[in-house]
Amino acid sequence: MIGSVPLADARTVFATVSAALGARLKRIPDGETGERSDWITWLEPAFADNPAFEKSDELFRIHATGTARIRYRLKADQSVRDVTFGNLFYADIARQSYAEFAALKRDGKIAPHVRFQIDLVPAHSVIWLFLQDDLHRPLDPVYNEALKREIDKIARTLPHDQIAIQFDVASAVFARLQRNEPNAYGANRGEMLSNFSAILTDLAERVPTDIELMFHFCYGDSNHKHVVEPADMGDMAAVANRLSADIKRPINLIHMPVPRERADDPYFAPLARLRLRPETELCLGLVHYTDGVAGTRKRLTVAERHAAHFSIATECGFGRRDPATIPELLRIHAEVAG
Question: Would you say 63 and 222 are in contact if contact means Cβ atoms under 8 Å apart?
Fold first, then answer.
């Protein structure tokens, strides 16, 4: 489960997903329901209510048909040194969701081995959406310090053996790597790989070692469209290898998406370069609702020629889809998993 499940609330997500998938599951997210149902857009108050910012006149889209948003800029009497970010509310929400998770587990409706999965989004994705480009380099570390405080609060208040933390490494990373255009994170692909790995390593090392650590790689899903179409799994393999080399604590899972139309060997071939550590599970996001079991098995068959062991998931969670499709999507997971 990647993160988003558009059902009524966390309790409904936990109960529905667990009933459909049972012992096959290792972790269940709370579905990012309600105001969080459109990925990171719920974080806009961190900028709209921040005294350092005001709306600019820049209309930003992450791709040509993506939803347009007005970005924020510094107020004329403010500097980057004046910017702070307070409560990002991840820990508060996690505590509320965990209470529902724990109650269902006590009632036997969630298997004993399953952990509660908490999804966090690093600065490079959030500020890409909300801030003008000139603010990305100086404010990335400022925002990530607030995110690390959220990790600390989660670690202080929730039982470590019952939770997992997943970082969403989204199109703000992978679109930039594929385009190989200079930006705040590097003048070229090599610099970007180094800088993004350093940022993610710093966040990952903040997670206590007895809390599971996961990464979800993504090319975007704004209006059900990628920011760029991945050429193959090469950039994902490169990022995974850097994280595997740089992060000292265990990495429990790395998820990589597989677009619906990619059931070809060249797409999966870069997996031959993958150098995951023994404790790291590879998860391939090759389940798609729109072509069901048959299409999923077609992608699975090709993937098995390039990776010996992996779990399966959707490409980018269940978000922003008709809730009526969720039972069938879960059924596809269960049937393909066997």
Answer: yes
Residue 281 included in any domain: yes
Residues 111-122 pLDDT 10s = 999 999 999 999
Mutual angle of helices 123-130 and 136-157, in 10-degree steps: 130
How many whole angstroms separate alpha carbon 67 and alpha carbon 15?
32
Q: Please tell me the total count of domains within the chain.
A: 1
The residues, any chain, with a CB within 8 Å of residue 288's CB and separated by 6 or more, are 260, 295, 296, 299, 314, 315
Q: What is the pLDDT of residues 275-333, one digit of tens each?
A: 999 999 999 999 999 999 999 999 999 999 999 999 999 999 898 889 999 999 999 99
Report if residue 67 sits inside a domain: no
> For tokens 């998406």, what's the residue?
257
Tokens of 304: 């098995």
Beta-carbon count within 10 A of 273 CB:
12
CATH number of the domain to which 235 belongs: 3.20.20.210
Q: Give the pLDDT confidence score for residue 65 in this predicted structure.
A: 78
The verdict on residue 61 lying in a domain is: no
**Phi, psi of 218, rounded to the nearest 5 degrees:** -155, 145
The rounded distance, in Å, linking the Cα atoms of 325 and 322 is 6
| Mean pLDDT of all residues in 157-167 | 98
Domain ranges, residue 316: 10-50+80-337
- Residue 58 in any domain: the answer is no
Note the maximum CA span of the chain: 61
**pTM of the entire structure?**
0.96
